[in-house]
Design a protein that fits this description.
With 1024 residues, this protein is α+β, with helices and mostly antiparallel strands. Helix 23 (570-582) packs across helix 25 (603-619) and helix 24 crosses helix 26 (623-636). The model is unreliable at 65-109, 160-169, 187-220 and 477-489 (pLDDT under 50).
Length: 1024
């Protein structure tokens, strides 16, 4: 009130002067001698001004007293950034800085709201306190102070040093960014062990997957939200590799409970008590009988909290409303001390669980198994899993939105910028397997996002990405991820550090392949050897300094369990090992080729081998050297059949175009064509060879586009199927046949031409990128309606009795609205869209429209087909179309009635069906021994193929159009929405569905990863 007194006194003085002006103003004017007519005329005006001014000041004064005290306007030089621990009022204005703006409606207000929630939470907890706890108001105030302390300490994500502009402090609210973690919970004893889990990009190591009553390798179920596990159990042990999010999870729990959200989490309102087990171990060394609760209370007091922590902790535990958050068991280095910590913690927590308290303990997997506590009721053990695509997308969405809000405020512009940044980062992750591999780890995803945000373009090639990431970690990422630990400020020289890390990583990869763990003693000996070779004055001292610097300064190489070291992620070990291999070829490349040849076919060395070629060609800019190494692998072919060629192909794919020579690519492509069709090479390896070939450019006829022709024209390898009769349908003695395949009967067909392969992605692309989806001339009336969003006619499946199946079928079709009907459903899938694989995810309408588009393109190009080595004009009356089911079956089985496209019985090595075990589509033609009598490939397996023939309007095994086949009964009409027949089986189906005579129908709207088509030129029997 005192600050407004002068204002009121001035207002009163002006009002009095105004009211009495007629009395004193003339006297005043006479006194000063100002008695002119002009001055007398101004008397009324002066009076009016004084009255108005006094009234205005009075009104303003009244309004100001009703408002909070104004902040003083002071310019503060923060030296580049400032942290504000308390509340800041902007009165609706902006908090402005050079690099960020936080509006009064943004983070500052949220902090004020958090403060209110803390006060409310403290009050609720104090209400439940024991009368013996003392003054309830004092306890409430202490609890409020403690919860505020937790908020201030853990509110923001720690990002110190994670980018090139690390002197600019970012304050990103942790709760705004956090994506809930999931974990696998081990199944009851008796289940089979699962030994192929991946953690931080690597398989479980032997120490992590050892057998035992509760072995970590026990078969684990589907990932479960970790919060759900905590809600269902009194005690939870959370295991995971570095960067998996263990410590962050504990911080998030503390923040949520401080804000009174325990009920929402399903764990009730509790007092969070966060503590480091490494610090507890240190305290036990001095006081072996120190109880955990006393340590926790003392630790907070030691941090500067002047609060009755003993009373607060004791009261919360006594009333079963505490949550103990115990971090980093693996950081207790000595095994004996770690045993003692586990015993003390479990004894304490067992007693406290009976009162209703809960606890969470985190540890890396290494260092835990040897001290694993005995199973007890209410205790669960879980292993964190890497982020999947949805979780990566969730993090990226939150990251970009939070950053843009901080930079520009909560505005429409910031939201639009966030959406653009989000899509850009997601595109980088999704199209680049190297980025995707790192992004599965929450810590590394944060690092990648930070690099991207600060203008560091994430390279398309993974060798460049890893090179950049390692240099970033070494030069500017002084990690500060732990429980209040200080980030060191010492920076390392990247060149010198990599000069040590590379041979070290190569040695670790040799000593501990796929696991990446070595003992501290062996590591120190190797470091001394490396420094001795580099001419260090004191190798032991240099090794010791390295072991102090690298874990603290980069986080690349970490202590992982007592006396063991390993890289934070297998990717970095593999990359640095590749740098070490490349260093062998500084003078002569034969040591590099020889080293890689020794490990051809060993999956542990595959990535390091690929990165070696990439490092030589791209990072070192030695394409001749990289090409020489890759070409040597493709021509000398060491190791098991096909392995060296596939390795060379994948290496060239990574490095092309500027990392290897054109001559090298030509050599490798020729070797891939041979390998992908070689019977001696296992099908999975043939698939990899085909994929590499497809991405490098498959030169085989009938797979891609005609070279040098514009607009693009698919290069179809047409095969003439001669006129004449053939046996259609299944014989009575075929035990695998269905009734709707019978009877076997003769059908006579005219000459037609059929594509050797199913239509590939490369051949379908011009339709997508041209006018295929926009020109109604290519579509039937029903097809054009589908293209424009018409719902599927589901009446043909109404006789299906399984209501749940019908519901799921309808939901699947509804997933493809109009805006998703401008390309095949799986068009953007990294694997399914490989250029020389069959196009999948196409409806019957799309397949038929492509045929009409191809016919237009062929006639524009002269109306000529390439058949064998001849050019054949399209005969009069012939159309480019989907095959009838009769044409398809004749192309598959010829005229001798065979069951499979080949003679004899079923042979799984001849077709990509379920029995082959590929579990995906494959590049066309990698099963050459499965060719039909007419030389057609992939007629059994790979993808079901749409035909133009109708099944009818009844589902199941009762087609309206049965046998004998009659092309004149309406079954070949192209109008309507009848179900259409598919043939040939697929990678997803059992071999009995790949028989030449097998037929089944589906509605024309249907699309699947196992449905494709091939094309024929045959006599038209229907128009649309």
């Amino acid at each position: 009130m005192k600050r407004y007194l002068p204002l009121f006194l001035l207002a009163i003085l002006l009002l009095v002067l105004g009211l009495t002006a007629r009395l004193w103003l003339p006297v005043f004017l006479d006194f000063v001698g100002a008695n002119s007519e002009l001055i007398q005329g101004l008397e009324a005006l002066v009076q009016l001004v004084l009255l108005a001014g006094g009234a205005l000041l009075a009104v303003l004064g009244y309004r100001r007293i009703r408002q909070p005290a104004p902040a003083t306007t002071t310019t503060v030089d923060t030296g580049g950034g400032a942290y504000v621990g308390g509340s800041v009022s902007t009165n609706g204005g902006d908090w402005t800085g050079r690099d960020s703006i936080v509006t009064g409606g943004g983070n500052i207000t949220s902090i004020r709201v958090e403060r209110d929630l803390v006060i409310q939470t403290a009050g609720e907890l104090a209400k439940r306190a024991s009368p013996a706890a003392g003054d309830p108001d004092a306890l409430r105030r202490a609890t409020e102070t403690y919860l505020t302390y937790l908020l201030d300490r853990h509110r923001y994500l720690q990002l110190k040093g994670m980018g090139v502009h690390d002197r600019i402090p970012l304050q990103l609210p942790l709760l705004d960014l956090y994506v809930p973690l999931r974990a696998r919970l081990e199944m009851p004893a008796g289940e089979t062990w699962q030994r192929h889990l991946r953690l931080a990009g690597r398989p479980l190591e032997p120490a992590e997957a050892d057998a035992g009553d509760l072995a970590l390798s026990s078969r684990l179920g589907e990932p479960i939200p970790v919060l759900d596990l905590l809600a269902k159990n009194e005690g939870l042990i959370v295991l995971g590799d570095p960067g998996a999010g263990k410590t962050t999870f504990l911080k998030v729990l503390a923040l949520q409970l401080a804000l009174g959200r325990g009920e929402r989490l399903g764990i009730g309102e509790r007092l969070p008590l966060l503590a480091s087990l490494a610090d507890y171990a240190g305290a036990l060394s001095g006081d072996p009988d120190l109880r955990l609760d006393r340590f926790i209370a003392g630790a907070y007091k030691a941090s500067g909290l002047d609060l009755p922590m003993d009373e607060m902790v004791g009261d919360a535990l006594a009333h079963g409303r505490a949550l103990l958050l115990l971090d980093g068991l693996d950081e207790v280095r000595q095994a004996g001390l770690r045993h003692r910590v586990v015993e003390r913690v479990m004894d304490f927590c067992t007693g406290q669980q009976r009162r209703g308290n809960k606890f969470v303990l985190t540890s890396r997997i290494v260092g835990y198994r040897a001290v694993r506590p005995t199973r007890q009721d209410g205790l669960a053990e879980c292993t964190l899993v890497d982020f999947d695509d949805q979780e990566i997308e969730a993090f990226v969405s939150r990251w970009t939105a939070t950053l843009e809000r901080q930079a520009q405020g909560d505005t429409a512009i910031s939201a639009a910028d966030a959406r653009r940044e989000r899509q850009d980062l997601l595109d980088t992750v999704q199209r680049n397997p190297a980025v995707r591999r790192l992004a599965a780890n929450p810590l590394l995803l944060t690092m990648l996002a930070m690099m991207k945000r600060q203008g560091v373009a994430l390279p398309e090639r993974r060798v460049q990405l890893y090179h950049q990431a390692v240099e970033t970690l070494i030069s500017s990422w002084n990690r500060a991820r732990g429980m209040g630990r200080q980030a060191p400020s010492r920076e390392l020289d990247p060149v010198a550090t990599i000069g040590v890390l590379a041979p070290l990583a190569l040695w670790i990869h040799q000593e501990s392949p796929g696991v990446g763990l070595v003992t501290e003693w062996a590591l120190r000996q190797k470091l001394e050897e490396i420094y001795r070779g580099q001419g260090a004055a004191d190798p032991p001292a240099a090794a010791g300094q390295f072991l102090r610097d690298i874990p603290a300064e980069t986080g690349l190489l970490l202590a992982r369990g007592e006396g063991q070291y390993g890289f934070i992620h297998l990717t970095f070990e593999e990359y640095l090992a590749a740098v070490g291999i490349a260093a062998l070829g500084q003078v002569d490349l034969r040591p590099v080729t020889g080293f890689l040849s020794q490990h051809v076919g060993d999956p542990v060395w595959r990535e390091a081998s690929l990165l070696t070629v990439g490092y030589l060609g791209i990072v070192q800019r030695r394409p001749l050297a990289a090409g020489e190494v890759a070409a040597a692998l493709a021509t000398e072919r060491p190791g098991p059949p096909g392995e060296a060629v596939v390795l060379a192909g994948e290496a060239v794919l990574d490095a092309w175009p500027d990392g290897v020579t054109a001559a090298c690519k030509e050599t490798v492509v020729a070797a891939l064509v041979e390998t992908m069709q070689a019977a001696a090479v296992p099908p999975p390896l043939r698939l990899r060879a085909g994929d590499a070939l497809g991405r490098l450019g498959d030169p085989r006829r009938g797979v891609g586009l005609v070279q040098g022709v514009e607009p693009p024209l698919p290069d179809i390898d047409w095969v003439a199927i001669p006129a004449g009769p053939f046996t259609m349908g299944s014989a009575e003695n075929d035990d695998m046949a269905y009734n709707f395949e019978r009877p076997a009967h003769q059908v006579d067909l005219r000459l037609f031409y059929m594509a050797r392969y199913p239509v590939t992605n490369a051949q379908f692309r011009p339709f997508v990128e041209g006018d295929g989806y926009d020109n109604p001339d290519y579509w039937t009336a029903e097809g054009w309606a589908w293209r424009n969003g018409a719902e599927a006619d589901l009446s043909p499946i109404q006789d299906v009795r399984d209501e749940d199946w019908k519901r799921r079928y309808a939901e699947w079709l509804a997933r493809r609205p109009k805006e998703r009907r401008d390309r095949p459903w799986y068009w953007d899938d990294l694997d399914l869209s490989t250029p020389n694989r069959p196009v999948v995810g196409v409806s019957w309408y799309e397949a038929l429209a492509w045929c009409r588009w191809l016919e237009a393109r062929l006639r524009e190009a002269g109306g000529v087909l390439r058949v064998a080595d001849q050019s054949v004009a399209i005969p009069p009356g012939y159309r480019v179309q989907l095959p009838s089911e009769a044409e398809w079956e004749k192309g598959a089985r010829g005229g001798d009635g065979r069951l499979w496209p080949w003679q004899g019985g079923w042979q799984e090595e001849r077709a990509n069906t379920k029995e082959a075990g590929l579990e995906q589509t494959s590049p066309v033609g990698i099963f050459p021994d499965g060719r039909s009598a007419h030389g057609l490939l992939d007629m059994a397996g790979n993808v079901y193929e749409w035909t133009r023939s109708r099944w009818g309007r009844s589902s199941g095994y009762r087609p309206d159009y049965g046998y004998p086949y009659d092309a004149t009964d309406g079954r070949e009409r192209l109008d309507g929405s009848d179900m259409r027949i598919v043939r040939g089986g697929s990678w997803y189906s059992e071999h009995k569905f790949a028989r030449c005579a097998y037929r089944i129908g589906n509605i024309p709207d249907y699309f699947s990863y196992s449905y494709g088509f091939r094309v024929v030129v045959s006599l038209a029997n229907s128009e649309f």
